[in-house]
Amino acid sequence: MQSHLALLLPVATVWWVAGYLADGLPRMTRAHELRRHTGRLLALTLVALGLTVVLPIAGWATVGATVADRAAGGLTLAAVPALVVALCTVRRLRWLRAGAGALAAAAPSTPAPHGLRAAAAHPLIGLPLQVTGLALLPALVAASGAGQFLGPGATGPAITVGALGVAVIGVRHALRHNRLIERAMPERTASARPAGALHV
């Protein structure tokens, strides 16, 4: 077991918990629940981003190859989804928390509307968080020493499995988002005149 696993594991754990909370966000049926859950997720996301930034800074601040340098190298694959989290997810969580907060202040026990739940289910909230957590798995496997048992031929299948996992997660988020959007749309009123009726 490599020593930098002790630095990578807390970072990965925070990302995994954030991804888990994001998955449950659209299931909040009350406005005050949605606001509270969004606040927790936003705080945890900011902590995860902070830890992801601190490790490379700690590596750059030290001379030579240190534990922090090896841990920062393990974050390379997660850098892109973490950047998407910083640029898109945080902004959407702030907007969602403000919307749920305004609704909860007006009527604390009111159900969360489908439109707000659809915003909570947007793929740019849950998907980047979960993909970042998934991207940290290879670094954890390598740091734990388990990678030596897999052999060099395992890289290709691992990449394929990872890509399929990301695709499945993305499709799941998109389907749930679309389902809630359809519920939020007003029902179309049936026309009083049949579509094929002729004017008399």
Summarize the structure in words.
The protein is mostly helical and 200 residues long. The chain has one domain. It is built from nine helices and no strands. The longest helix is centred in the first third of the chain and has 31 residues.
Structure in a nutshell:
This protein has helices spanning about 5-25, 30-60, 65-75, 80-105, 115-120, 125-135, 135-145, 145-150, 155-185. With about 200 residues, it is mainly α.
End-to-end distance, in Å?
85 Å
Structural class: mainly alpha
What is the number of helices? 9
Number of beta-strand segments: 0
The largest β sheet comes out as:
none
Radius of gyration (Å): 22 Å
Share of helix, binned: over 70%
Could you say which overall geometry the principal axes of the C-alpha atoms support? elongated
Helix and strand sequence? HHHHHHHHH
Mean pLDDT metric: 82
How much of the sequence is in beta strands? under 5%
How do the strands and helices of this protein lay out in sequence?
Blueprint: H1 5-24, H2 31-61, H3 67-73, H4 79-106, H5 114-120, H6 123-135, H7 137-144, H8 147-150, H9 155-184
Helix pairs in contact: 1-2, 1-6, 1-7, 2-3, 2-4, 4-6, 5-9, 6-9
What features would you highlight for this structure?
elongated, 200 residues, mainly alpha, single chain
